[in-house]
């Protein structure tokens, strides 16, 4: 059975992710206590189910400790299990809760002895939730939804759901440093040292997937040297990441605006590694019609 577990910080998009999987034909369950997971899988198997998506969060925090062991047992039983952990910067979460006017799930669950007063603030709830979920963050593929539109998150979740079981998937992501480094990055490369096509008025409205920008950067000796160094680094250490039983390795490449140099480098890296690895590509700052590769 293909099983996808969605967890993470409240307000980071778990409902969006679960809706995407439901639309894709997954049998979906929200807020399942982790201790019931294996029982639910057994029931679905008896019913002939082939797919299952489950959302878990801090509302069931007391039973999250046993989740890693349950996941490993499900894998040993032959199930294809993926864990997606959604997170976001605290300021982004505060904005989302303010816009929806909903209270944080922990606002009525934190004991008075865990905070300085009887009424926990939203920030205190978020920090406490990060602490409660820290043990399971490392067992899944982390997606930083800060600044992501709902449509882009839906696209990324769908992409992950369609990924076949492989030892490791290489995910290359371009981003703008001015909007912050992605929280889900495992490796980060800075390509701001390269000449910036932005200052050429004919190249400014284009992006790193367009032929004129590619030609501009191909002509830069520094770009070729930096690309070879990044390729060499990833190639050297990729076997070690694979031996660490990772499902995903996210390589984030950033420039100032996330439009030209980083996009170009991500495309070049992806083209090189597609010959031997399962590769996914994200361009965080590009509009959806340009973000797919």
Automatic annotation (TrEMBL):
InterPro entries attached to this UniProt entry: P-loop_NTPase, RapZ-like, RapZ-like_N, RapZ_C
Domain RapZ C-terminal: 169-286
Name this polypeptide is given: RNase adapter RapZ
Taxonomic classification: Bacteria, Pseudomonadati, Pseudomonadota, Betaproteobacteria, Burkholderiales
Domain of life assignment: Bacteria
Binding site for ATP: 8-15
Residue ranges constituting the RapZ-like N-terminal domain according to the UniProt record: 1-161
GO MF annotation, one: GTP binding
Positions annotated to bind GTP: 57-60
Record keywords, A-Z: ATP-binding, GTP-binding, Nucleotide-binding
Pfam families per record: PapZ_C, RapZ-like_N
């Amino acid at each position: 059975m293909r099983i996808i577990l969605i967890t993470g910080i409240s307000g980071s998009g778990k409902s969006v992710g679960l809706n995407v999987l439901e639309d894709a034909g997954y049998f979906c369950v929200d807020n399942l206590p982790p201790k019931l997971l294996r029982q639910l899988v057994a029931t679905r198997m008896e019913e002939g189910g082939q797919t299952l998506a489950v959302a878990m969060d801090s509302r069931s925090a007391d039973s999250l400790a046993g989740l890693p062991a349950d996941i490993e047992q499900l894998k040993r039983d032959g199930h294809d299990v993926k864990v997606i952990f959604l997170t976001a910067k605290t300021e982004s979460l505060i904005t989302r809760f303010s816009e929806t006017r909903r209270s944080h799930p922990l606002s009525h669950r934190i004991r008075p002895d865990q905070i300085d007063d009887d009424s926990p603030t939203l920030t205190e709830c978020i920090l406490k939730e990060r602490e409660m979920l820290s043990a399971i963050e490392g067992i899944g593929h982390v997606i930083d939804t800060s600044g992501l539109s709902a449509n882009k998150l839906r696209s990324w979740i769908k992409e992950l759901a369609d990924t076949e079981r492989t030892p490791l998937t290489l995910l290359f992501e371009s981003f703008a440093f001015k909007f912050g480094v992605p929280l889900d990055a495992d490796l980060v490369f800075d390509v701001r040292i390269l000449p910036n096509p932005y200052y050429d008025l004919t190249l400014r409205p284009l992006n790193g997937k367009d032929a004129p920008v590619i030609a501009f950067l191909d002509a830069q000796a520094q770009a070729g040297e930096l690309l070879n160094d990044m390729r060499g680094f990833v190639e050297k250490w990729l076997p070690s990441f694979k031996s660490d039983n990772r499902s995903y390795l996210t390589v984030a490449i950033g420039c100032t605006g996330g439009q030209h140099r980083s996009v170009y480098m991500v495309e070049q890296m992806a083209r090189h590694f597609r010959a031997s690895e399962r590769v996914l590509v994200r361009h965080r700052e590009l509009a959806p019609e340009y973000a797919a590769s």
